[in-house]
Amino acid sequence: MRNALSTICALTALLAFADSVSASAAGTLETVKSRGQLICGVNQGLAGFGIADASGKWSGFDVDFCRAVAAAVLGDASKVDYVPLSTGDRFDALKAGRIDLLSRNSTWTMSREVEAGLTFVGTTYYDGQGFMVRNSANVDTALQLSGSKICVQSGTTTEANLADFFAANKMDYTAVVTRSPDESISAYSDKRCSVVTSDASQLYAIRAKLPDADEQVILPELISKEPLGPVVRQDDPKWATLVKWVNFALLDAEELDVSSKTIEEALSSQNPAIRRLVGAEGNLGQEVGLDNQWAVRMLRAVGNYGEIFDRNLGSDAALGIPRGINQLWSRGGIQYAPTMQ
Q1: pTM of the model
Q2: What angle do CA 11, 13, 14 make, to 5 degrees?
Q3: What DSSP state is assigned to residue 326?
Q4: Rounded Cα gap, residues 124 and 205, in angstroms
Q5: Distance of CA 76 to the CA centre of its chain
Q6: Strand partners, 176
Q7: How far is CA 242 from CA 19, 39, 122, in A?
Q8: Are 247 and 103 in contact (CB under 8 A)?
Q9: Which of 121, 188, 207, 332 has minimal Cβ neighbours within 10 Å of its Cβ?
Q10: Which neighbouring-strand residues pair with 93?
């Protein structure tokens, strides 16, 4: 009887394992297609990157990446369920499968891949940690911040970078720990801290929300490297490859001068690189589980990388962040994509 029970238990465990393997084999791409909607983790509210208006409509640089993936996979950029996540919850939500993709100004680090089992599919925004102070503080450099009360968000790489910078320069400070950009704004406005530290991009967004934005200075130093990009789980390399090439296609399109305004002309181009991008030549779309028109749908919906940047962060946006190192490599920046070939 004991042997029979052991055999039954073993068979039950084996069947459960087989079911789990079968479900896993379906993969994220098939799940998203079957559901008819992409579930995308975004910021709880960061101007320029991910924010909802009063009617609940989402916009931003990271939001547009979600829309690009939805357009490529589902043929409709609006088929996205946005899940606002805190810094503390974002990776757990992804690992638990509550979202398909995290597009939420997250820094690519080794520990997040090795220890957390995540895959960063590329760098959509090269950033660095900086400091914002009031003009009246008469501070020109971060090296003058010794003794300051500094607002810093918990659950970010920012905390460790701040400690390292002050220790390396033999300066002291008092950390005022906050849980979100809005809490940092509140603490800074109430003068509970005299300095805010965060990714420089986030400082631009914080400054834009202040009623006395013109009185704030973002200091010139960047004390860290913060490559920000979309994240997926490590257990689905097929999905990671697809999302990675959505990013690369946005960059390639800008380099090839293919935009939302010129996509129709591009369809009849004789340039081999453009023909591969728009699916007129080769079979690259089908090799990642899509049809060959996936990039066309994406570019019609959101435009190329430059259009997304300008609309949300740059020259056409309230933040007015310079392209800087996020310019294409061919124009003096470091944004660079492998060839679609």
Answers
A1: 0.84
A2: 60
A3: G
A4: 17
A5: 20
A6: 151
A7: 25, 16, 12
A8: no
A9: 332
A10: none
Give the whole-angstrom CA distance, residue 294 versus residue 276: 11
pLDDT at 315: 87
* Residue 195, φ and ψ in degrees, nearest 5: -140, 145
Identify the residue whose tokens are 């460790």. Answer: 160
Q: Quick check: helix, strand or coil at residue 119?
A: strand
What contacts 169, CB < 8 A, 6 or more positions away? 143, 146
Q: What is the DSSP string of 37-101?
A: SEEEEEESSBTTTBEE-TTS-EESHHHHHHHHHHHHHHS-TT-EEEEEE-TTTHHHHHHTTS-SE
Q: pLDDT tens across 279-305, in order?
A: 999 998 998 999 999 999 999 999 999
Which residues neighbour 202 within 8 Å (Cβ) at sequence distance 6 or greater? Answer: 46, 49, 105, 181
Q: Over the stretch 68-110, which tens digit does the pLDDT of each residue have?
A: 999 999 999 999 999 999 988 999 999 999 999 999 999 999 9
User: C-alpha angle 20/23/26, rounded to 5°?
Assistant: 145
Domains located in the chain, CATH noted: 26-126+228-322 (3.40.190.10), 129-224 (3.40.190.10)
- Could you tell me if 61 and 307 are in contact, meaning their C-beta atoms sit under 8 angstroms apart? no
Helix (H, G, I), strand (E, B) or coil at 206: helix
Helix and strand numbers (H, E) in the chain are: 13, 14
Close Cβ partners of 102 (under 8 Å, ≥ 6 residues apart): 40, 41, 85, 90, 91, 93, 94, 230, 231, 232
Beta bridge partners of 328: 335
